[in-house]
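Entry 14. Structure prediction run on the chain below.
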Amino acid sequence: MYRPYHPPADPQLVRELTQTQQELRTHVRLLPLTHEPEFIAGCDSSFPTPETILSVFVVLRFPSLELVEKVWHTGPVEVPYVPGFLSFREAPNVLRTYEKLSQKPDIIMVDGHGIAHPRRMGIAAHIGVLLDKPSFGVAKQKLTGSFTEPAVTKGSISPLTDKSGELLGEVIRSKDKVLPLFVSPGHRCDQATATRLTLACLRGYKLPEPTRLADHWAEEFKKELR
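Output returned:
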C-alpha cells in the first residue's frame, strides 16, 4: 500500500509512545459480553489533508442494523506519522466524535486492529481502553502475525497467530472470493464475540455494516469540508 514519505520519527517520541502503549495494554480485558448488544457502533477515521483528521461514528440497532445516529468531527492532526503508533493520531479526534453521540453504543466496531498489533494495542484496543467500552477491530490488511488463507467461500475463517502460536485474531472471508478481513478483540470483548458480531453484521458487502456505513458517511462528510 502506498504511503507518502515521512521523515524518520524522533526516537524520544517513539520511546514515549511505546511506554504509553505498554501502560494502556495493562488495562486491556478480553472478556465475553455480559449481554447481547442493543446498539453497535461503527468507527472510522480518515485524513482529508495531511494536517487534518475526520472521524465518524454511526450507531446501528442490533441485530436489525437500522441506522440510529451518525456524527462526525474534524480537527488538526496532533501527532506525527509513526508506523505502529497510528492510534495516537486518531484517538483524540475519535474521542471528541464519540462525545457527540446521543445514543451511546453497547460495543464499538472499529475500522482497524484490536490486539492484532505488534504491541497488542491497535486503535480498537486503544479507544476501547480510553472509553472503557467493549470494542473490537475489523481491518482490511494484516499488520502482524501469520495465517493460512481461509477458503474462498463467505464465512470461512482461519486463525491469525504470532510466532509463539498466540491467537491474535481471526481472518474472515466476508464475501465469496474477496480478500479477507482481519478481526481481533480490542477491550472488554473476546475473539468469539468479535467474530460472531462481524459475521452477524454482513449484508452482502465485503465490510460489515457498522464500518461500511462509517466509511460511507466519512466520504459524505468530507464534501462538507470542501
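Residues 209-225 form the longest helix (17 residues).
Filed with the rest of this week's runs.
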